[in-house]
Amino acid sequence: MSDQPYHAPVEPTPGSLPTSYWPGLEDHEHSRWYTERFRAMAREGEDLEGESRLVDTLAPRRARLLDAGCGPGRHGGHLARLGHRVVGVDIDPLLIEAAREDHPDATWLVGDLTILDLAAQGEGELFDGVLVAGNVMDFIGEGHRPEAVSRLAAHVRPAGFLVVGCRVGRGFTPGDLDAALPGTGLVLEQRFASWDLRPFHPHSAFCVSILRAGDGSGGR
Ligand SMILES: C[S@@+](CC[C@H](N)C(=O)[O-])C[C@H]1O[C@@H](n2cnc3c(N)ncnc32)[C@H](O)[C@@H]1O
């Protein structure tokens, strides 16, 4: 892993839409506030692990897991404590710094999901499962979300899974996710309205989609 400062490619081509709308990239106070908010909730004993409990259920033991858009690392940190081999990646360097401080059992990398190439960052082994939680898809720039889905799919091993949880109606929609799937090798396996698996309805305010990669047999 490189210790060189990372300059987030927020606007890779002049005039093109940014790849991230995350406020912390321009306002470091926001990143510090966000980190402290979750640290305080953890100290107060709030349940911050619903997302990672679902991933633990889906995953084999000692799985290789990717926490994509990990922020300060609450999901990946929990999964590492459960014995999984976790890599977390996020575009905000301050949040990655916090994840490294709070959850030293996992590997934390700065990266942009829309151009994700973890092999180039020394993490070439594909993942048993990938988690995208906490409205990350809403913060990825419009027009770049299909690229993020495709780059995430490229990091999933055959028969592995990608779980995407996001609020509905603020930007990204379940329909956007479905439209991004052709050509990625992922298919929608299950869709729920919450991390504790309530049924999804067209009017649900939240959506958890479990996507599965083909097993490489071509359906034989
Ligand atoms: C609301 S936070 C969620 C953090 C974490 N997943 C959680 O649930 O606690 C959204 C995260 O998406 C990350 N993000 C936004 N755009 C991104 C991009 N293009 N590539 C990587 N991470 C991105 C932000 O930096 C931020 O950490």
From TrEMBL:
Domain of life, per lineage: Bacteria
Region feature Disordered, mapped onto this chain: 1-21
Keyword Transferase: yes
GO terms (BP aspect): methylation
GO MF, any single term: methyltransferase activity
CDD domains xref list: AdoMet_MTases
Keyword Mitochondrion: no
InterPro entries referenced in this protein's UniProt entry, alphabetically: Methyltransf_25, SAM-dependent_MTases_sf
Methyltransferase domain sequence ranges: 66-160
Alphabetized UniProt keyword annotations: Methyltransferase, S-adenosyl-L-methionine, Transferase
Pfam families noted in UniProt: Methyltransf_25
PANTHER family: METHYLTRANSFERASE, UBIQUINONE BIOSYNTHESIS O-METHYLTRANSFERASE, MITOCHONDRIAL
The protein's name in its UniProt record: Class I SAM-dependent methyltransferase
Organism this protein belongs to: Ornithinimicrobium pratense
